[in-house]
Queue: 3 jobs
Job 1
Amino acid sequence: MSTSGITETLTIRMPADELQRLRRVAEILQRPIDDVIVDTLRANLPPLLDDVPREMRSELAMLEKLPNMDLYREVNAVMLPQLVTQYDALLEANAADKLDDAGRQALTAAGG
């Protein structure tokens, strides 16, 4: 479940319908509910600076501090929407450690 081997316990409150849905998915997949939750979080959380190549982190760190509307303007001023979509896909693949050499090169080129 955890890539670092360290686990922690977290208590969350959620609607009963959603918990039932998680239980049903875990049952169908024949996997522990904890694994289903972790996999769902991994697939849906946005990438962090730690997930991008080191040479891009300082520039992206500045963008993290911008208000949403300023960030939206900045991204759209620099990249066309289809390039943003491609870049997001590369970041997600990189975060999931599923990026090959060509993908890493494309990610570096897109960010620099």
Note: The radius of gyration is 18 Å.
Job 2
Amino acid sequence: MKTAKIIIDTDPGIDDAMAIFFAGLSDKLDLITMTSVFGNVTVDIATRNAMVLAEILKQDIPVAKGHGYPLVQIPNPVSDYVHGSEGFGDISAKVPNSKALDIPAHEYICQMINDHMGEIILCPVGPLTNIALALRYDPTIVSKVKSIVIMGGGLHSGGNVTEFAEANIWNDPHAADEVFAADWEVTVIGLDVTQKVVCPHSDFSALTLDAPIIGKFLEQATDFYIKFYKEAAGIDGCQMHDPITVIATIHPDLFTYEYHPIQVCLDTNKVGETQISNDAGRRAAKIAVDVNVDAVKKIFFNTIRTGF
């Protein structure tokens, strides 16, 4: 029985695809919509890719197109060297049969939260631009969401695009700081835990045997992803940033947390760094600092294997 409604704000992206497939196939999550944002790819490609993933799932999941650039800073280049020019490694671009909704993502997020008060898990796994705009559009959503679980930052880990910054926060640090300043309890699934969950190619090739459609898609996409990790970090596998974040929405017990108010560095060479804030007016965030690696990997692969 599906027990939780979830909105994924996403910039697909290979690990975004993993997260979306997991949410769509979980027997506990009801993926009621997706909203797109720039980041791994442009917002136009992200919107298209979200619709393509919904069609692979054979599910009618509405997609609302989001913002295409940061609130303040000049946009960083897209991460095509990580995810490929079309977002899914060497997999060619596909044209979806569906169309995006005729409403901006931040407005649709607010509409859905108001329509389902106390029921929505908001799960951004890209830059936080749409979420900051939603807070500006309707500040009351902070008391109406069930929870917000963010993939971004890192408390003790350092960064993955600079020495200090994680990619999602770095791509729009001003938006992230607004989200962390809002009066809601935020759960942060950052590099402290996502870098610990590494899956080799053999995990995905084995998945193909049991889930030929989604397994084959992920096996092909992660060829590119794993090559990046091997060349950039010497890792024989890929880190599972976004799917681990979605798993945290329904299995919070698999993580260990610290509680601190968070601010984001907005200038200097540390721009995008998530830092403990001394601002007494900021609510403490729930920040994951450790994870049961074997358990989350088992949950991910078993859900894909048995859900389709």
Note: DSSP finds twelve helices and twelve strands in the chain.
Job 3
Amino acid sequence: MTDYFTETRVYCVSLKQQASKKRVLALGFFDSVHIGHRKIIDFSMKIASDFELIPSIYTFDNDFFRALGTDEKLVFTLAERSAILTGLGFRPENIIVGTPSEEVIKMSGESFLDFIASLNVGAVVCGADFKFGAGGNMGAEDLKNWGKVNETAVFVMPLMTEWNRKISSRDIREYLETGEVRIAEHFLGRRYFMRGVVEHGRGVGKSFGLPTVNISVDSRKLIPAEGVYDTRVRLADGAVYRGVTNIGARPTFGEDKKAIETHILDFNGDLYGKTLSIEFADRIRGIFKFDSKEELRAQILQDIERVRSDTDD
């Protein structure tokens, strides 16, 4: 075995105390858990059910792109992905999270296979484009050959395509970066969302009767294009409200600093310090500078009516 254990965190379980029951392991970063990823996940769940295996998944933490030396942003953070994955049926202790240190990034394919073998796997599921080992020098065929030698079933799922293109997180990022949240939703199979902690803002909205909540998000998280969005706000207790979310600067007030602030319709309460999720339904408009606070307030009221009339919950 390698020293890979020292670079790997596993939620609520020690790798030294594996259950006797074998795992079916879904392999991939799954950074956006899009509908192509879901195909791999759903198949692994079926295998787990049919053969009484433990459904497990392998992913990386939030520093994956940083470790690769890129400034790529995450569609979903590890906490957000974990919430999605537990909703799909994975127990938290079976979400295996690798820490992409330099040592791990440079690890050989053979060492990675040693690590997989240590997880007591009975079956492995991956996409046809799955790569592993230093520089991605090994792929799905190598995994299948390893499976034959080690009597481990390896299922390689064909790539899912639409519009004559492979469904990819890269394209989803581009849609979000241009504000096309509806198209992103189609490929994600859910609304794009961000989780964040409510922090104190300037209170400008409250001063003219339209209070907002400001949230802080992980700096590695992708934020959609500047604009005003039709959103749904999900509180920690599960309650969901409609919202109008502004992403960007406040030119009417002469502020260049970007913020994420949301007016929650029909809500009264203190959310400071609480974690909530904002789900993006549509982009309403861009950010404009208004001649007065009154004009801005009138526009926000129009935005609110548009969100209120949206029949898509």
Note: The chain has ten helices and 16 strands.
